[in-house]
Write a structure and sequence with these properties.
By secondary structure, the protein is an alpha/beta fold. The protein has one domain: Response regulator (Rossmann fold). The protein contains five helices and five strands; from the N terminus they run βαβαβαβαβα. The protein has helices at 17-29, 40-46, 66-76, 91-100, 114-125, and strands at 9-13, 33-37, 54-58, 81-86, 106-109. The chain has a five-stranded parallel β-sheet, with helices on both faces. α3 links the parallel β3 and β4 (81-86). Mean pLDDT is 83; it is low at 131-137.
């Protein structure tokens, strides 16, 4: 894969449309190829034709949550990095369940400043891989 930003693909899955669209605009302005969907169910058919390198997933989505979608991505598209974000303290229970099943995902706490999100994406896409990010309390 090329290291050029304009060739890097990022999927945003967030049910709050204003948050999703704003994040999409910020990332597109930074040169990334962006696709925005508002549910995990809308993301699944997109993945058959468009493969992101990073998926930014809201944890608390209706129906299928972001952690469940991250597990689908991990199983079917292991080259895609999942970056979860949430403003809900109750997310820790879901994260503990995923960890107990051997899955460890990075989680950013909402609200996420754009510079923090851009740095997290840059780290995920770097050859050295993920670092540490502010965690949900």
């Amino acid at each position: 894969m090329s290291g050029r930003v304009g060739e890097r693909r990022i999927l945003i899955v967030e049910d709050e449309q204003v948050v999703a669209d704003t994040l999409g605009q910020i990332l597109a302005t930074s040169g990334y190829q962006i696709r925005v969907v508002y549910s995990a169910e809308d993301a699944l058919p997109l993945l058959t034709t468009w493969r992101p390198e990073v998926a930014i997933l809201d944890v608390m989505l209706p129906k299928m949550n972001g952690i469940e979608l991250a597990l689908v991505l991990k199983e079917n598209f292991p080259e895609c990095h999942a970056l979860l974000f949430s403003g809900q303290p109750s997310v820790e229970v879901l994260m503990q369940k995923a960890r107990s099943e051997g899955h460890d995902f990075e989680v950013l706490a909402k609200p996420v400043h754009p510079s923090v999100m851009l740095e997290a994406i840059s780290t995920l896409l770097s050859p050295t891989g993920p670092g540490s990010y502010p965690q949900v309390n």
